[in-house]
Amino acid sequence: MGASRRELRALRGFVFDLDGCVWTGDVLVSGAAEVLAMLREQGRRVSFLTNNSGARSAGLRAQLERVGGQAAKDEGVTPLEILSEVIASRWGLTRVLAIGGDDLGGALLEGGHELLPTDRYREAQVVVVGRDAGFSYDRLTAAARAIAGGAHFITPNLDPRLPLQGGDFLPRCGAVVE
Q1: Disulfide engineering: 21 pairs with which of 4, 17, 96, 102, CB 3.0-4.6 Å?
Q2: Which sign does the torsion angle of CA 37, 39, 42, 47 carry?
């Protein structure tokens, strides 16, 4: 059962998911801007936590502003802010085959990992699958072969769909992982 009004009034901060909760595609969910503004006016902390691996928090902050919302620099976290650290804590600095966009690769490089092209899949110690608008059969083949060869496998997201406005969607990491 949900929290009582008294319990909600006592909360000092709120964490929101973005995709499908605060926005759908390029449209702010009805009432989201008002709720966020009200919470801030009441002096409550607002944060955004997403499993969207297509951009770092700065990119998602920019998207939130484009659709009519707002977020401060320290109010958002995406998997790309922590993924490199998670890999390093489990397997050390390593050779990674990344199936994902430029931000995913950049985050891994900045974290000290070696980013491998698909033709070097045999050297991969870890395969990471994130949101990849340029996904191809070649990338799928390289990832599958690297994993079959013993590479560890990690993904920040098993969602099959990314919700868009009007009930439309894009395939998400879960569709690729499956």
Answers
A1: 17
A2: negative
